[in-house]
Write a structure and sequence with these properties.
about 60% helix, 27 helices, 3-stranded mixed β-sheet, about 550 residues, mainly alpha
Length: about 550
């Protein structure tokens, strides 16, 4: 049978084919509509500028037409053939049962029976034609089949359910055989990392979404994303690195926060600092770090300031971490977590306080970032403020007072209070406020002691106690200053006056402790059947 070459096809400017118009039109609805039933000898020409798969793929469908609908459909060409069949409208309505579109659809339905290597080959070709593969459903089915295989393999691996994000899936054991077994288990859990690391960022994004929807182990997903980032960075350009990082961050953000360690997040942050990633991805990373602020270390937070800034460390970034910690934690923030973050911040504030370029507003923001209840003791913060005031001697009295007012004087130790009363760097009003706070604390302590004592002593024993207090050891009366403090005089006189009052406060603290010890001893020795005279307690004037 003679073959006529009456159709010239220009494919995307890559190559021109001479074809038998009648044969091609008998399989292609698109060309059949274009040329109708014309069989004239005149040569026609058609130009395709967007043919899927280019000249190579057009040659495949041409062979399909010339071979009377026979062609080898395999994982390496199924996505190309399907997209070309749709483009050329090679459906049942044109060529009956012998049509390329139906043949490729049937192969796609059998994806679940393909081997792992075949699935990988198909997936790699899908990413070359991602737009077409996505609309046709090939890509989604291929990803679902891959995730299904991984889920079956993961169920047989103990690592998939017992590992933590920090442990790398391994536990130490004295039994070498047991250790090797766990290593093999971990290998079974991540055997697919290298195979899928060749995928484009967009395909990895789709893969992660499919894994999450299939409830695949999120710890393994987070490890794969970290592996993917590291493996792709070796040969990637700056733009490619930025795209990979954004996909990795967005993927991690969809997972449970407990599935990735704080250390890993800070590792990503170190890389992000040198790349201009999107603001959305950066915010997501900061939120993830902030939600795990209680697991961070001081070294994690000591991040250099952005280029062109004079201050040493990036204080703004740490403040955003704290904001995220308080916002993301919400009602889940336990006192233990809050205190861990407070201790960490005390260390950080002490580290940045000597920076001569750290602005007053930023230092104050660090001091007041956490609620008062986060700290049981404010000594560390007091010493950091002391250093900051020494380095920034040029601060105005108003600025100094704002910083000092952030202190909770009631939670200062006696040593810190003594230091404060003699500290010329602090405003005089702060010293007065500290003294008032100490007096109030001691007054409350005395009131509590007095109430406890009233519960166990009778009125007659009260007189006896008063008498013994005058004769007993350490019975001197400690009288606190109760008049109005005059802070209008010079600071040195006021400071000397405050130091004298401080001595009275310290002595009263000692006596209160002694009185509490005597009460505890009395309660221990007293029994319900005892009717004798109770042991007297010293009483002090106020």
């Amino acid at each position: 049978m003679a073959v006529c070459c009456d159709l010239e096809a220009d494919i995307n400017g890559e190559e021109t084919f001479l074809l038998d118009k009648k044969i091609i039109c008998s399989f292609s609805g698109r060309l059949s509509k274009l040329f109708g039933k014309s069989t004239g000898a005149n040569r026609n020409k058609v130009i395709f500028n967007d043919f899927p798969g280019g000249a190579e793929n057009f040659e495949l469908i041409s062979r399909f037409c010339y071979n009377k609908g026979e062609i080898d459909i395999n994982p390496s060409n199924i996505s190309l053939l399907y997209s070309a069949a749709e483009f050329m409208e090679m459906s049942k309505s044109v060529s009956g049962n012998c049509n390329l579109l139906e043949k490729t659809k049937k192969c796609i339905e059998e994806l679940g029976y393909w081997t792992w290597p075949d699935l990988l080959v198909a997936l790699k070709h899908c990413q070359e034609l991602q737009q077409v593969a996505t609309s046709s459903g090939i890509l989604e089915k291929c990803l679902d089949s891959i995730v299904g295989r991984l889920a079956i393999a993961g169920e047989a691996s103990p690592c998939a359910s017992t590992s933590s994000p920090d442990s790398s899936g391994l536990r130490l054991s004295c039994d070498t055989r047991s250790t090797e077994s766990l290593k093999n288990s971990f290998s079974r859990a991540n055997w697919w990392f290298e195979d899928l690391s060749v995928l484009s960022p967009n395909l990895v994004e789709m893969l992660v979404k499919s894994m999450v929807s299939h409830k695949y182990n999120q710890v393994i997903i987070s490890r794969f994303l970290l592996y993917y980032q590291k493996s792709r960075f070796f040969t990637a350009s700056s733009d490619e690195k930025r795209q990979v990082l954004e996909i990795v961050i967005d993927g991690l953000y969809t997972l449970d926060p407990s599935c990735i360690s704080c250390k890993s997040l800070f590792g990503i942050l170190r890389v992000v600092l040198n790349l201009n990633i999107s603001k959305s991805s950066r915010n997501k990373l900061e939120c993830m770090i902030g939600s795990q602020m209680d697991q961070a270390t001081l070294d994690n937070l000591l991040i250099p300031s952005p280029y062109g800034r004079s201050y040493l460390y990036d204080v703004n970034l740490v403040l955003r971490f704290l904001k995220a910690f308080l916002r993301e934690g919400g009602w889940r923030l336990s006192p233990t977590r809050m205190k861990k973050v407070a201790s960490l911040m005390d260390l950080y504030i002490a580290e940045v306080a000597p920076d001569p370029f750290l602005r007053f507003s930023k230092f104050l923001a660090l001091v007041v970032a956490l609620p008062d209840s986060a700290r049981d003791c404010w000594d560390e913060l007091y010493h950091a403020i002391d250093v900051y005031l020494e380095v920034h001697a040029g601060l105005s009295e108003e600025e100094k007072l704002k910083i000092c007012c952030a202190l909770n004087y009631e939670k200062l130790s006696s040593d810190a209070y003594v230091h404060l009363s003699q500290n010329a760097k602090f405003p005089s009003k702060s010293s007065v406020q500290a003294l008032v706070s100490q007096q109030l604390k001691l007054k409350n302590l005395l009131q509590g002691t007095k109430n406890s004592k009233s519960d166990m002593d009778s009125p007659c024993k009260l007189n006896e106690t008063r008498g013994k207090a005058k004769k007993g050891e350490g019975s001197e009366q400690i009288v606190l200053y109760s008049g109005r403090l005059d802070i209008s005089g010079d600071n040195e006189n006021l400071r000397a006056h405050l130091q004298g009052m401080q001595w009275r406060v310290i002595e009263l603290e000692k006596l209160c402790k002694k009185m509490q010890a005597q009460m505890a001893k009395h309660m221990k020795s007293k029994t319900p059947t005892t009717h004798g005279t109770a042991r007297s307690l010293p009483r002090f004037c106020s």
